[in-house]
Amino acid sequence: xxMTDCNNSQLSIHRSQSIPPGYKxxxxxxxPKDWVISTLENITKSNGLVxxxxxxxxxxxxxxxxxxxxxEQCNAIYETIQLGTYYVNEQKYRDLARFDIKPGDFIVSCxxxxxxxxxxxxxxxxxxxxxxxLKICIDxxxxxxxxxxxxxxxxxxxxxxxxxxxxGAMQNLIGMSLFRQTQIPIPSLPEQHAIAxxxxxxxxxxxxxxxxxxxxxxxxxxxxxxxxTGKARLxxxxxxxxxxxxxxxxxxxxxxxxxKEDAISGxxxxxxxxxxxxxxxxxxxxxxxxxxxxxxxxAVKLRKGDLLFAGSGETKEEIGKCVAFIDDYETYAGxxxxxxxxxxxxxxxxxxxxxxxxxxxxxxSKGQGDAIxxxxxxxxxxxxxxxxxxxxxxxxxxxxxxxxxxxxxxxTRRAKTLDLKQGMMQELLTGKTRLVxxxxxxxxxxxx
Length: 448
Fold this sequence. Notes:
By secondary structure, the chain is of the alpha+beta class. The protein has 14 helices and 28 strands. A 5-stranded mixed beta sheet has the order 5-9-6-13-10. A 5-stranded mixed beta sheet has the order 17-26-22-24-19. A 4-stranded antiparallel beta sheet has the order 4-14-11-12, covered by helices on one side. Helix 7 (189-227) runs antiparallel to helix 13 (390-428) and helix 10 packs across helix 13 (390-428). The protein is elongated, with a radius of gyration of 29 Å. The protein starts with a helix and ends in a 7-residue tail after the last helix.
């Protein structure tokens, strides 16, 4: 159909409204006019974009106890490399020189979680990549290494990598010619440095929060080890602790009647057994399932002070994880939840205590099954516990709860900082926010 002059005019107006002055539309989005859209191939050195050796090039018989390291898969969770125990001798290293890795190079995973990138640190040994990796050697005169790793990890760039795979397995199916032509936005080197510095500062804050959270968790674990066993006593408490069975602390009930599809059927809070593993620790502080009055009529209503145990799980080590219900809200328990309706104990203390290592060992010994492990109310009722008087339970619970509150506040701060970083990336990596004035960014632009 032929477009009329009126339609042409409307299209021109739409484009002028969607693309701000000083910006341009490219194949990968809208960017400042002074930015260059380059390919990976154009920002790497000669022989700087190489896929690991395949076939019989790197056989196990070439491996030895000493020599040059064989770099293996990237770890997507910890962003580290698994060096393993493999080496190749000097002759084989020379034969595979095009696959060699040196400090400052990047390696990228091409199987499992594809697209995970890692930069080889200065102290790392030279070596070669195996078939599960790609090697990238960038040209520092064209792109800042810290900017490169930030842009490579960005959601938009990772999406373009996935577009160059078929079936999701880069190892076998990605076309290296397509990978080399994957596009990347390149501002001037001064602006790259500014972006990298800003985002690196946020990363440093996140890392410091991670270390602080880990430290606080370790302190809490040490406190639990002492306080929940009586190895350390709080001031003012010196009475004897008493051995009992869980079955002596109340009566056991069984949750029922809530299917997966029922979990969003209404407004009444509900605890499902899978959520005990994934969302709750020691004490229930939030709700993640909401059921209708009709569904609730077939479920078990909880009372303040109930202890909830996961009645099934994947391993004996995790079976019977416990959480305490301490609210007055009308709340229900789903199937595979074993409920201990307690009397004469502090429920918050018991929530912590029933997840303590010695109690977990008892629960594991009573789990039944292989693929799916179950623990019954009868098995739980026979578990032995060593309990202080209730006032001491309450004092211990208060200390551990304060520690959890502090950890939760740090985790909330970390989550907000991570959200801030994502927002900064969206602004800085598209040029919506400029840290270097556009007229300055024309200077020292990388020759691509």
